[in-house]
Specification:
The chain is built from 8 helices and 11 strands. By secondary structure, the protein is of the alpha+beta class. The radius of gyration is 25 Å and the shape is elongated.
Length: about 250
């Protein structure tokens, strides 16, 4: 199979031949930005999971207080009596959201920074989607609309990339066929494949950062689904975790 890249005259077009490199654009650099997001696809699961994580934080606060009271020790630097007043105030807060806001402000006051925010974690998943690098290709080298849209109004070229074994374009992890649908993709699975990185801040305090795995099925659905109005493009996408210049994913077709 040969996949084609429609190109107009530009520096990035020249680099395909002179430097043997291709430029992978992020979502903002595409002519057809994403129509869906991870948070849209998995909304019900995310909403439920966010509440469970927040409830876990609140339960952890109460458990830590009970342990401190049992051992007659300080609770985040507070005496037992001051801690009891704090927890009594916490229990009178009527709404779940306000309770969680109280918890975050208290942890910030004791630790100097806010605890991890479950909502921000999932918002970060969509940022990953927008930051991913995409090199769009087509099965068709003779589509007049694409010559007009992507090849400098028919004055450009269509470069053929031969899909060979052991190349990135033959690797399912790096190259995905676009699915055309006017329906939002179904959530793939009961959760996300996550990756967690651990760091130390400038004061030597540990913290972690969570992101969705690049191989997560829902992530790949979001990056490869477009409305049916684009179906004439017969698109494939060579993808990397970040936009930028990369070596040719295959040899150029003769």
């Amino acid at each position: 199979m040969i996949l084609y890249k429609y190109r107009g005259k530009s520096g990035n077009t020249d680099k395909i031949f002179t430097e043997r490199k291709v430029w992978l654009s992020n979502a903002a650099g595409l002519n057809d930005p994403f129509e869906c997001s991870i948070q849209e696809i998995a909304k019900e699961w995310i909403d439920e999971h966010v509440r469970e994580l927040k409830q876990g934080h609140l339960s952890g606060l109460i458990f830590a207080f009970m342990q401190a009271k049992k051992s007659n020790s300080h609770f985040f630097g507070l005496s037992v009596s001051d801690a009891e007043k704090l927890i009594s105030s916490f229990k009178t807060i009527p709404s779940f959201d306000d309770k969680y806001k109280f918890y975050r402000e208290f942890m910030k006051s004791r630790n100097g920074k806010y605890p991890s925010d479950p909502e921000a974690t999932f918002a970060g998943f969509d940022q990953q989607l927008n930051d991913a690098g995409i090199f769009s290709l087509s099965e068709n080298a003779e589509n007049q609309l694409m010559w007009s849209h992507y090849a400098d109004d028919t004055r450009g070229i269509a470069i053929g990339f031969k899909v060979e074994p052991n190349s990135k374009l033959s690797d399912d992890n790096c190259c995905v066929k676009v699915n055309y649908s006017d329906m939002l993709p179904s959530f793939a699975g009961k959760g996300f494949l996550n990756e967690i990185s651990f760091y130390m801040d400038e004061y030597g305090r540990p913290y972690s950062k969570q992101k969705v795995s690049f191989s997560d099925p829902t992530f790949r659905l979001a990056i490869s689904t477009k409305p049916t109005v684009w179906s004439y493009e017969r698109e494939w996408r060579y993808i990397e975790e970040q936009s930028g210049a990369y070596p040719l994913p295959v040899k150029l077709a003769k």
